[in-house]
């Protein structure tokens, strides 16, 4: 059986179709591991081909038997077009990922079958059923798989990311932040791959710079500490970036950050989300304490690593002064790069449930669920105020003088090679905020 796995085009953010065909898509292109991962868990007897529409066109007349398409909320409309096109040609289509899991009935209007949740335990069964012509409509969430059985991703099938690599070591998150899709999608709690498997995969990875695609690497500090030690012992010798939470980066023992740096860490991505404690409490991200942000950043800088902070605007507690307050705080805090987003209620999250119940969601055009457009009525400001305020912060943070100031500091903190990723992120953010917010 011949299988085609498709990653659809994305029109916003870091993995953009807008760059297709240009050298910038190679230099800045974000490594997507979903398809090479799906290919790795596909039994060897099947032929697998990957197509990433952000880089290449889909051949709808390709000689294949089954198409698997990965689907985020914002890609859902495009995924459905692709699925419909293949089904018109008589191909069987399977959808998986966050959006079909949250909206199975909708997804099934465009697919022969869907897998809910992680695919490890169901994909093989689905393929066997497909071979027998007995595809089930829904393969329910099945968390009964062992992280030790997860093979290295099929790096041989990655054609477009010569610079940046990626790997996943853990699944799930124990926090229950209202806006986040992870806790409702993944199994509860956290699963880890055995460290020796991760080390083996890192040894195979050719990229000198890579990203941990874990929800965050601070869920189990004992695991992460062990991993860092093994990376040092095995001379992995690569630079990397990972997500981390404020509480762990602040409170963990000194060894943790020291080992992370020695293992190659150049940047932590931290979801600060807001400089309003009321907003943080409102979304149940109470482990973030605004008064501790400065200490956290200083601590990470002390260990010669940088911090990229995530900021979201549009929480119920946000009033129109939040934009100026945030800009001031960003400057005081000395953050090395800032990711700026508009709150987006993803289906499947408690936030979506709450806003939908209150009748505050005014569009279900999923293509607008991209953290740049506004899809719900904010509580304490107008839609226009939210958009214009966010645009102002993005424009100010990503003016050339501010980028140069931050990047010089980054290179001073982590050196030239180590600084390429965080400094490149600053340039890349400017490129896409300029397009997304039209400045
Ligand atoms: C790394 C990451 C990124 C990276 C790379 C994204 C990418 N395109 O790969 C970057 C930083 C670019 C990114 C950006 C964004 N991301 Co992101 N990201 C992640 C993260 C942390 C890991 C994704 C990953 O690689 N997982 C590893 C692979 C192996 O797992 P997987 O993709 O989930 O696939 C499994 C299942 O989903 C399922 N499956 C998936 N596809 C298919 C297909 C078939 C056919 C089948 C059967 C099964 C199946 O089986 C797979 C194996 O178990 C996830 C959270 C998480 N931990 O999952 C968020 C996450 C996917 N991101 C999210 C969002 C919202 C975004 C942004 C919109 C945020 C923004 N700031 O604008 C952008 C835009 C997306 C983009 N431009 O790509 C949301 C998606 C929510 C939703 N409902 O759509 C998530 C869940 C985070 C969250 N907290 O809510 N992201």
Secondary-structure topology with pairs:
Elements (H helix, E strand, L loop, with lengths): L1 E6 L15 H6 L5 H7 L6 E6 L13 E5 L5 H13 L3 E5 L1 H5 L1 H5 L4 E3 L7 H9 L6 E2 L24 E4 L2 E2 L10 H4 L5 E2 L2 H10 L4 E4 L8 H13 L5 E6 L1 H6 L2 H9 L2 E9 L3 H6 L10 H10 L3 E8 L8 H12 L3 E6 L7 H8 L25 H15 L2 H37 L3
Parallel strand pairs: 1-2, 1-3, 3-4, 4-5, 5-6, 7-10, 10-11, 11-12, 12-13, 13-14
Antiparallel strand pairs: 8-9
The site of cobalamin (B12) has 36 residues, from α2, β3, β4, α4 and β14.
Descriptive report:
It is a single chain. The chain is an alpha/beta fold and about 450 residues long. The protein has helices at about 25-30, 35-40, 75-90, 100, 105-110, 125-130, 180-185, 195-205, 220-235, 245-250, 255-260, 275-280, 295-300, 320-335, 350-355, 385-395, 400-435; strands at about 1-5, 45-50, 65-70, 90-95, 115, 140, 165, 170, 190, 210, 240-245, 265-275, 305-315, 335-340. It has 2 domains: about 1-140, Rossmann fold, CATH 3.40.50; about 165-435, tm_1862 like domain (pyruvate-formate lyase- activating enzyme). It is about 40% helix and about 15% strand. The strands form 3 sheets. Strands 2-1-3-4-5-6 form a 6-stranded parallel β-sheet, sandwiched between helices. Strands 7-10-11-12-13-14 form a 6-stranded parallel β-sheet. The protein has a two-stranded antiparallel sheet with strand order 8-9. Helix 6 (about 125-130) links the parallel strand 5 and strand 6 (about 140). The radius of gyration is 21 Å and the shape is globular. Cobalamin binds near residues 14, 15, 97 and 118.
């Amino acid at each position: 059986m011949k299988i085609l796995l498709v990653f659809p085009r994305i029109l916003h953010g870091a993995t953009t179709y807008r760059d297709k065909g240009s050298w910038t898509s190679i230099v800045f292109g974000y490594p997507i591991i979903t398809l090479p991962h799906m290919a790795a868990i596909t039994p060897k007897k099947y032929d697998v081909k990957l197509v990433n529409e952000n880089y290449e066109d889909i051949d709808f007349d390709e000689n294949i038997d089954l198409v698997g398409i990965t689907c985020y909320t914002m890609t859902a409309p495009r995924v459905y077009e692709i699925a419909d096109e293949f089904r018109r040609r008589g191909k069987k289509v399977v959808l998986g990922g966050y959006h079909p899991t949250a909206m199975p009935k909708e997804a099934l209007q465009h697919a022969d079958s869907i897998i809910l949740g992680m695919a490890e335990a169901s994909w093989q069964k689905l393929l066997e059923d497909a071979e027998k012509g007995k595809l089930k409509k829904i393969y329910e969430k099945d968390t009964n798989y062992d992280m030790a059985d997860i093979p290295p991703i099929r790096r041989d099938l990655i054609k477009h990311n010569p610079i940046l690599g990626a790997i996943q070591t853990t699944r799930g998150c124990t926090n229950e932040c209202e806006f986040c899709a992870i806790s409702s999608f993944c199994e509860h709690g956290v699963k880890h791959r055995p460290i020796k498997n991760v080390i083996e995969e890192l040894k195979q990875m050719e990229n000198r710079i890579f990203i941990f695609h874990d929800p965050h690497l601070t869920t189990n500090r004992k695991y992460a500490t062990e991993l860092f030690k093994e990376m040092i012992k095995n001379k992995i010798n690569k630079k990397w970036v990972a997500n981390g939470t404020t509480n762990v980066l602040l409170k963990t023992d000194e060894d943790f950050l020291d080992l992370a740096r020695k293992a190659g860490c150049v940047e932590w991505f931290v979801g600060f989300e807001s400089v309003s404690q009321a907003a943080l409490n409102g979304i149940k991200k109470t482990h973030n304490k605004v008064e501790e942000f400065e200490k956290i950043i200083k601590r990470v800088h002390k260990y010669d690593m940088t911090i990229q902070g995530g900021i979201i605007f549009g929480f119920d507690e946000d009033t129109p002064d939040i934009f100026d307050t945030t800009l001031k705080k960003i400057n005081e805090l000395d953050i090395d790069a800032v990711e700026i987003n508009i709150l987006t209620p993803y289906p499947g999250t408690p936030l979506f449930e709450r806003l939908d119940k209150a009748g505050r969601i005014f569009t279900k055009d999923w293509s607008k669920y991209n953290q740049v457009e506004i899809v719900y009525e904010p509580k304490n400001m107008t839609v226009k105020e939210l958009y214009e305020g966010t645009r102002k912060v993005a424009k100010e943070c990503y003016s050339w003088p501010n980028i140069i100031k931050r990047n010089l500091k980054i290179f001073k903190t982590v050196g030239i090679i180590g600084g390429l990723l965080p400094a490149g992120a600053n340039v890349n953010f400017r490129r896409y905020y300029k397009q997304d917010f039209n400045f």
